[in-house]
Design goal:
Order of helices and strands: HHHH
Low-confidence stretches: none
Distance between the termini: 19 Å
Mean pLDDT: 89
Number of helices: 4
Radius of gyration: 17 Å
Largest sheet: none
Number of domains: 1
Number of strands: 0
Oligomer: single chain
Structural class: mainly alpha
Helix content: 55-70%
Length: 82
């Protein structure tokens, strides 16, 4: 529940810092750095930003949905509303 939401927030934070150049060192792969590198080719190849951008969106959305689903399953107050 809270773990899933915090993990999604950590992914967004790391991607944002890596996009700004403040993340992990260059040999280590990072979605934020992939977005930053694809930014230079945005006019010629706009599809390069789709893979890391969609990966970030899907990972965070999936974790939020997982946390919401677990919350619905484990919270007795929410289970009574069905």
């Amino acid at each position: 529940m809270q773990f899933a939401i915090q993990t999604g927030l950590a992914i967004l934070t790391e991607a944002g810092l890596s996009f700004l150049g403040l993340g992990v060192a260059p040999p280590t792969p990072s979605w934020g750095r992939m977005l930053a590198e694809a930014q230079t080719y945005l006019a010629a190849a706009p599809h390069m930003v789709l893979a890391p951008g969609l990966a970030i969106c899907l990972a965070v959305l999936g974790l939020n949905l997982l946390g919401d689903g677990l919350s619905h399953l484990t919270d007795p107050r929410r289970r009574e509303r069905r």
